[in-house]
Amino acid sequence: METTLQTERTRVRRLPQRAAYDREAVYAILDAGFLCHVGIVERGQPIVIPTAYARVGDAIVLHGSSKSRLVEVLSSGAPACVTVTHTDGFVMARSAFHHSINYRSVVILGRGEPITGEAEKYAALEAFMEHLHPGRWAVVRPPNAQELKASGVVRIPVTEASAKIRTGPPLDDAEDMALDVWAGVVPLTLERGTPIQDLG
To answer: Which of 53, 55, 58, 141 is deepest in the core (most CB within 10 A)?
Structure first.
């Protein structure tokens, strides 16, 4: 399998020095997240849908109702664009113009492939849950045959993608460095809170 995911369609044109196209960089960003936005076209109308995902091998796995618009469009093999973004900090510059955000992002171009075999679908759903909540699959009731049938599972192979990353402090102009304005980075983090038990 190709180690580079760069194609003419995924080549980063704006600030190309921030781009990465190797699987290691792309997979690190994918594995650190759980929410993506999937762009599709349905009846000529572009639609972007947020949804959870997991990386399973060299593919992104999505799931939903077998009758959902997203699953039906992707299962047809239609082209899609999947994006994942992590915001790591607000970059506070001395000038308004140079404010920015530190981020890690991935853009994947590809086509959906339905997962229909019962064993493969079961394994994909297990991998999906384990990505979001490690250890959870072992303690819950697994899906039964009816639930498996009602669940649509789609993979999108990661063969054409790019990562783009910004890190570090603001890039102020030299003439602004003496301004009496605080500058730096305000870190942003996402963390799990204290679980709230269901008493129902």
So the answer is: 53
Whether the model pTM is above 0.90: yes
CB contact burial 54-90 (16+ within 10 A = b; e otherwise): bbbeebbbbbbebebebbbbbbeeeebbbebbbebbe
> Domain of 70?
16-168
CA distance 106 to 19: 10
Q: Say which amino acid occupies 72.
A: E
Specify the amino acid at residue 170. P
pLDDT digits (tens, 9 = 90+) for 135-179: 999 999 999 999 999 999 999 999 999 999 999 999 999 999 999
Segment 73-83, tens digit of pLDDT? 999 999 999 99
185: tokens are 């980075």
99 CB-near residues (< 8 Å, 6+ apart): 90, 91, 92, 93, 170
Adjacent-strand bridge partners of 116: none
- Spatial CA neighbour of 39 closest among 84, 103, 102: 84
Q: Is residue 190 part of a domain?
A: no
- The domain tally of the chain equals 1
Give yes or no for a contact between 160 and 10, defined as CB atoms under 8 angstroms apart.
yes
